[in-house]
Amino acid sequence: MTRGHYCKAGEWLEGDRGWELVDAAGIYCGRVCDRCEAEKRARFRPEIFSGYDERDTNEEGEGQ
Fold first, then answer.
1. pLDDT over 80 at 63, yes or no
2. pTM of the model
3. What mean pLDDT is reported for the chain?
4. Which end of the chain has fewer CB atoms within 10 angstroms, the N or the C?
């Protein structure tokens, strides 16, 4: 399998030019490089990269 990722404007970059973007819980969010990391991070809520709990998601927990 050829390693690479889709960068800005859907441009395919061949080779090992990036890294895996993961959230604070280690969940894979995509492959990024210096050129496209900010653009791809912007697709997600910022809290997922710094850690969060149910208070941040505005959801009621058990017993509430």
1. no
2. 0.71
3. 85
4. N
